[in-house]
Each structure stands twice: as structure tokens, then as C-alpha cells.
């Protein structure tokens, strides 16, 4: 039955999720920014839908524990057939016949004290609801962070393809000029063939970059669970690489420790473990409860008399007078007592108090408390470990961010210098001073400088998104 309930929740959640994603898909209308990719994934992802069900299950368990404070009330009824030798429920005598009977009862009980087990169970259930919600947020952050990473990889692949295309345009221009000069006899065949070979290498690199871009788009769509074939992201600018002056490493660390779902999840696990200690300690305390019962029964052996008739019968004679001696007899008929009358006549009530005092149970209670304490120690260690990991991750990300800013500055200088060098070598080659090989080397160096610059800008953007997430708990392409 529990399995069918879970499956029902899954089907309902999937239907609701599908409707939300279809509606959002119409609103996006091909405008695939990072924010739109994240929003669509949040409505489409089945793992997130499952986690929402787990939140509902935790809330249901909380309701169950809260209701355990109230009295229980149970009714029972039975219809019995007794054959052969059995005990008459009214006379308590053995009889040898078939008997039909009914029993009815209504029982209630309520726990007055059990070492605060119910109270602590409710507290733990409330914390488990909060923990399930935090787990949902943690899973959401993990999935959406992966989507953001895949989105940025598409950007990087597009920029690499763009740089290679720009370099190849220069190669093609020089190749066309060399071909004309060669055909006119103004240059030798080697220069023409060198440029032709360079164009072939460029085309190979461009095709490889197209393959990388295709795979990056495919990975992003798979993470988004998007079936659309017509998929093109909105390419953000990589030109903004100025440092964010409002950020400090200590400030980001403090915000992350206070906001990160992974830290909150570990804290919730510690709270549940500590409450479990109090729950396990309740096994040492008495259990006091009040109970009550009303019951009645019916049996076909319960007979009632009717149609009484009196008569006299001689039992002897007086010896001296021969006068007859008589006695009076009463005769009657019997029938099974009416069902309602029996229920009324046999109605009984019971009220009592039950006290259970634990004395010895094979040290199970002590072992339970010890296990709960050890589990709490593990959870506390896990919390401290996660905090240390967060601090280490932020320190590394912040260092990478600062290094990326410096790398961009160096890459910009290098790209500018390589572009100037290529222009100079190109002019020298046209004047016959430099060779085609020199021009190709300068062109490749300029192309590599462009890639290095794009990679450096990508690192800045990636670091900004990462630090913005640690600082605010949000994923955004423009954390300014």
C-alpha cells in the first residue's frame, strides 16, 4: 500500500512538473539565458520532484507524531460459531452443542507520561521536515550549479570557435592573395602551399571546435532534460572583468557559513541526532497511561421464559385419612433472549490506569543512548568538516578569481602585442622581407593569444559566478 501511495505522489508530481515546464518553455521562446536555463531545469528535473515528495512524507510523519498525543479509540466486533463441547458464556458450564455468539467492544487509551518521548519525537519530526526542505535546496543548488557549469562550457566552446574562425579568415585572405601571385608568377609555390596547409589545419581546428561546441550543447540539454533540437544560448559578454570591490574573502566565508544549504543540512542533522539522544533516554522512564473499555455480547444460549402455567400434581396420600397430598408446579416455554435486550443486559465498563516501569532489559536502553550519542558525535564532526571544506573552497575560488584578474591583464597585453607582431610580419612578408613561414607562426601566435585571453576572461566569469553563489546562495551570470 505504501508503494502505491509513493507511486501516486510521483505521478502527480510528474504531471504538475511537466505542466510547469511546458508553460515556462512557451515563455522562454528560445531565449536561453543562464537564468532561463536554470528556471527550466528547476521545473523539469525529476530528482527535484522526488525530493519535494520526500518533504511531503516528512510533513506527514510530523502529523503522525503530533497525533500520537491524542487518545486512541478502537472498536471491535466478532461473530463466533462454537461446535461440540464448549463453555456457555452465560452459565460458564460445559455444553455439547453448536453455539452462535457475538462480542462487541470499544476501547480507548491515552499516554500520560513516557519520559517525553512523544514531545521529543515531535521536535525531531519538525527538524526532519526542515532537513528535508534543506536537502531539496541542496539538491537544487547542486543540479543548477552543474547546469551553470555546462552553460559556461558552451560559452567557452563558442569563443574558441569564434577565435579560430577569425584566425582562419586571415589565413584565407593571405591564401587568396598568394594564389593570385603564384598564378601570375610573382611568388614561388612553397609560399602558396604553406598557406594552403595552414588553411587545412585551421579547418581541422575549426571542425574540432564545432564538435566540442556540439558536445557542450548536448551536455547542457541533457542536464536540463530538454528535447528541443533548436537550441541556442544567449551569449553573455566576457568583456567585463573588473574586480568587484564589495567582495572580501572573509565576508564571503561568513555569508556562506550562514547561508549555504550544505552547512544548514549538516546543522539539521546535528539537531536530529541530539534530539534522538533524549528520545533514547525515555526508555529509562516509566510509562503511565489511562485506558477504558465498554463491551457487551450476545449468545443464542441465553434463554428467557414465557407463558407461565401453574398446575397441581398429587405426590402421595395421608395414611390416616387417605387424603391426597398435592404440590404446585409452574411450567413455561423458553426462547432465545432478544438481541437488543442481551446487549443491554450484558453491557460492561472498565476504567484503569497502567504503569510500566523498566527495570532491566538486557542493557538495550543504555546501548540505545550510547549509540545515539556516538551518532551525534559523528554528525558534529561532519558539520565541522563541511565548514572547513566551505572555507577551503572559498579560499581557493577567491585566489583563482584574483589570479584570473591578473591573467586577463597579461593576456590582453599579450594579445595586443601578438596582433601588432602579426600585422608587422604581414607587411614585411608583402614587402618580401619576411617569409610565409614567419607569417604563419605570427598568425598562430596571435590565434593562441586570442584563445588565452578568452580563457582568462572565462575564468573570471566562472569565479565571479562561483563566489556570488557562495556569497548569496544564488546563481547569476551578472553578479554585480
Rg from Cα: 44 Å
Q: Specify the overall morphology.
A: elongated
What is the first-to-last residue Cα distance? 52 Å
What structural class results from the helix and strand content? alpha+beta
Task: Summarize the helix and strand pattern as letters.
Answer: HHHEEEEHHHHEEEHEHH
Return the CATH architecture of the domain at 117-284 and 358-472.
Up-down Bundle
The share of residues in extended strands comes to 15-25%
Give a quick account of the main beta sheet: strands, pairing sense, barrel closure: 4 strands, antiparallel
How many alpha or pi helices? 10
How much helix is in the residues? 55-70%
CATH topology call of the domain at 117-284 and 358-472: Outer membrane efflux proteins (OEP)
Sheet with most strands: strand arrangement: 1-4-5-8
Strand count: 8
Average pLDDT, all residues: 84
What does this structure look like?
- 64% of the residues lie in helices and 17% in strands.
- It is built from ten helices and eight strands.
- The chain has helices at 2-28, 34-44, 46-67, 117-184, 189-224, 249-259, 261-281, 339-345, 364-430, 436-472, and strands at 72-82, 85-87, 94-96, 99-113, 287-299, 303-317, 324-336, 348-356.
Amino acid at each position: 500500500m505504501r508503494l502505491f501511495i509513493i507511486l501516486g505522489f510521483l505521478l502527480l508530481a510528474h504531471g504538475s512538473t511537466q505542466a510547469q515546464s511546458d508553460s515556462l518553455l512557451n515563455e522562454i521562446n528560445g531565449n536561453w539565458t543562464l537564468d532561463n536555463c536554470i528556471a527550466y531545469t528547476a521545473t523539469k528535473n525529476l530528482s527535484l520532484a522526488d525530493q519535494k515528495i520526500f518533504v511531503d512524507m516528512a510533513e506527514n510523519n510530523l502529523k503522525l507524531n503530533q497525533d500520537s498525543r491524542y487518545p486512541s479509540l478502537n472498536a471491535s466486533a466478532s461473530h463466533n460459531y462454537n461446535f461440540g463441547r464448549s463453555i456457555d458464556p452465560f452459565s460458564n458450564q460445559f455444553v455439547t452443542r453448536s453455539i452462535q455468539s457475538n462480542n462487541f467492544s470499544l476501547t480507548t487509551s491515552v499516554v500520560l507520561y513516557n519520559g517525553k518521548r512523544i514531545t521529543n519525537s515531535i521536535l525531531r519530526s519538525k527538524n526532519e521536515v526542515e532537513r528535508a526542505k534543506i536537502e531539496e535546496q541542496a539538491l537544487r543548488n547542486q543540479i543548477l550549479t552543474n547546469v551553470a557549469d555546462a552553460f559556461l562550457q558552451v560559452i567557452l566552446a563558442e569563443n574558441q570557435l569564434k577565435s579560430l574562425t577569425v584566425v582562419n579568415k586571415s589565413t584565407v585572405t593571405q591564401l587568396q592573395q598568394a594564389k593570385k601571385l603564384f598564378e601570375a608568377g610573382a611568388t614561388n609555390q612553397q609560399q602558396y602551399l604553406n598557406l594552403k596547409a595552414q588553411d587545412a589545419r585551421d579547418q581541422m581546428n575549426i571542425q574540432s571546435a564545432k564538435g566540442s561546441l556540439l558536445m557542450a550543447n548536448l551536455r547542457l540539454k541533457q542536464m536540463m532534460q530538454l528535447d528541443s533540437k533548436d537550441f541556442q544560448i544567449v551569449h553573455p559578454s566576457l568583456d567585463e572583468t573588473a574586480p568587484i570591490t564589495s567582495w572580501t574573502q572573509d565576508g564571503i566565508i561568513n555569508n556562506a557559513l550562514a547561508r549555504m544549504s550544505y552547512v544548514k543540512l549538516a546543522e539539521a542533522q546535528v539537531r536530529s541526532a541530539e534530539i534522538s539522544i533524549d528520545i533514547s533516554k525515555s526508555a529509562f522512564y516509566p510509562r503511565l497511561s489511562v485506558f477504558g473499555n465498554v463491551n457487551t455480547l450476545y449468545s443464542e444460549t441465553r434463554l428467557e421464559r414465557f407463558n407461565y402455567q401453574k398446575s397441581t400434581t398429587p405426590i402421595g396420600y395421608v395414611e390416616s385419612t387417605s387424603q391426597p397430598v398435592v404440590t404446585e408446579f409452574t411450567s413455561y416455554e423458553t426462547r432465545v433472549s432478544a438481541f437488543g435486550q442481551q446487549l443491554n443486559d450484558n453491557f460492561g465498563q472498565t476504567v484503569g490506569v497502567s504503569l510500566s516501569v523498566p527495570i532491566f532489559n538486557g542493557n538495550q536502553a543504555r546501548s540505545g543512548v550510547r549509540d545515539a550519542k556516538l551518532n551525534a558525535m559523528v554528525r558534529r564532526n561532519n558539520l565541522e568538516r563541511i565548514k572547513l571544506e566551505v572555507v577551503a573552497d572559498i579560499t581557493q575560488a577567491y585566489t583563482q578569481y584574483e589570479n584570473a584578474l591578473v591573467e586577463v591583464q597579461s593576456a590582453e597585453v599579450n594579445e595586443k602585442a601578438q596582433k601588432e607582431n602579426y600585422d608587422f610580419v604581414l607587411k614585411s612578408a608583402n614587402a618580401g622581407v619576411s617569409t610565409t613561414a614567419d607569417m604563419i607562426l605570427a598568425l598562430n601566435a596571435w590565434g593562441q593569444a586570442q584563445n588565452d585571453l578568452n580563457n582568462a576572461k572565462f575564468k573570471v566569469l566562472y569565479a565571479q559566478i562561483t563566489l556570488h553563489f557562495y556569497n548569496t546562495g544564488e546563481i547569476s551570470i551578472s553578479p554585480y
